[in-house]
Design brief:
Number of strands of chain B: 7
Largest interface: A-B, 24 and 25 residues
Structural class of chain A: alpha/beta
Oligomer: heterodimer
Distance between the termini of chain B: 23 Å
CATH superfamily of chain B: DsrEFH-like
Number of helices of chain A: 8
CATH topology of chain B: Hypothetical Protein Ychn, Chain: A
Strand order of the largest sheet of chain B: 6-5-4-3-7
CATH class of chain B: Alpha Beta
Order of helices and strands of chain A: EHEHEHEEEHHHHH
Strand content of chain A: 5-15%
Largest sheet of chain A: 4 strands, parallel
Shape of chain A: elongated
Distance between the termini of chain A: 39 Å
Number of helices of chain B: 3
Number of domains of chain B: 1
Chain lengths: 220, 127
């Protein structure tokens, strides 16, 4: 069955290759919709109009009427390009449910850490503002403020996260952390039960905080 | 195209990367969306077209620019079960690059093949 695909172009064809890229990938059965500055491609007698005419032989091209009107192009739209209004363009976006924050690590929330006479800045959720400020003592102090004492097992996870960040420049999501810990430290440790016992507020979130990393990408 | 699994419906998602890495925020945002989206355990592929192939070029060093070099992060995608990376051959050639110049293993495909890959998706997010 031929699949219908809607390609949208929102940049001026004279400023940018978006139109070209779109026409390269639009195939029979596809539809092209010009919106925002993309509607400039709908005007006749331009440097791109012959290319548009060629494309019209294989794909239908629409332009969003409010955008055409806003740019004064109503009378210049070339034959074959159809105007549609917002109701005509049935593009729908499905919203995804937000991650549940469930966040409860508030030992040093909203206040800097004072350690050995130094003040260390943190963000509104208690994560280090500057990764370079991290030392083992900073980690211990953050944990102490959360009423958590760091054991060898805790350090194993913290060190793992720091190495992961050095290599990939991200703090891994919890699912990825669990799998990667399992690969490195064995299945007794690469499971959520073990990790949640160590870090009850969420292994990725809590351990990343003590590791001086930003909150993991994957939870907002 | 989509199929039912124990965790619900799995759809085929394609993230299309068309921009060079540091001139705009699109490339980094796309990667963040991919990583966040991975939590939903969908069937994810990434496509690199046009200047998007510059995102994968080896040897990026952003120290003097004082922004994050996110090219090493592409190496973590495998941990996120994102293993289908398609790069447009014509885009590489036009920029004097080959697969050997990229930070991760990819599948190099023609524009024609890329169009077919796009047709096989349920959802396409273009950056």
């Amino acid at each position: 069955m031929m699949k219908t695909m809607l390609h949208t172009v929102n940049k001026s064809p004279f400023d940018n290759g978006t139109l070209q890229a779109c026409l390269n990938h639009a195939r029979q059965g596809s539809t092209v919709l010009l919106i925002e500055d993309g509607v400039y491609a709908a005007a006749g007698n331009t440097a791109v109009s012959s290319q548009m005419q060629e494309a019209l032989k294989s794909v239908p091209i629409y332009a969003l009427k409010p955008d055409v009107e806003a740019r004064g192009l109503q009378t210049r739209v070339m034959d074959g390009i159809r105007l549609v209004d917002y109701e005509g363009s049935s593009i729908s976006w499905r919203n995804t449910a937000p991650c549940n924050p469930g966040f409860n690590l508030e030992g040093n929330k909203d206040m800097p850490i004072e350690l050995n006479g130094q003040t260390i800045e943190t963000d509104e959720e208690g994560y280090l503002a500057n990764r370079a400020d991290w030392t083992e003592d900073v980690a211990k102090e953050m944990a102490r403020l959360d009423s958590c004492e760091l054991s060898e097992n805790h350090w194993e996870v913290i060190n793992f996260l720091r190495e992961y960040y050095d290599q990939y420049q991200i703090a891994p999501a919890v699912r990825v952390l669990t799998k990667a810990i399992g690969k490195k430290l064995g299945p007794d440790k690469g499971n959520s039960k073990y990790l949640y016992e160590l870090y009850p507020y969420g292994p990725a979130k809590q351990a990343c905080k003590y590791a001086g990393l930003p909150k993991p990408t994957g939870c907002v | 195209m989509s199929e039912e699994s124990a965790g619900g419906t799995v759809k085929k998602f394609l993230y299309v990367n068309r921009k060079a890495p540091y001139g705009t925020i699109y490339a980094l945002e796309s990667l963040e969306v991919v990583l966040i989206g991975a939590a939903f355990e969908q069937d994810v592929s990434l496509a690199f077209l046009g200047d998007g192939v510059y995102q994968l070029a080896k040897g990026q060093d952003t120290k003097s620019l004082q922004v994050k070099n996110f090219s090493p992060t592409f190496g973590a995608l495998e941990d996120y079960d994102v293993t289908k990376l398609y790069v447009e051959e014509e885009a590489l050639q036009a920029r004097g690059l080959s697969a050997a110049d990229l930070v991760v293993p990819v599948e190099v495909v023609s524009t024609q093949r890329m169009a077919e890959i796009m047709e096989g998706q349920d959802v396409i997010l273009s950056f």
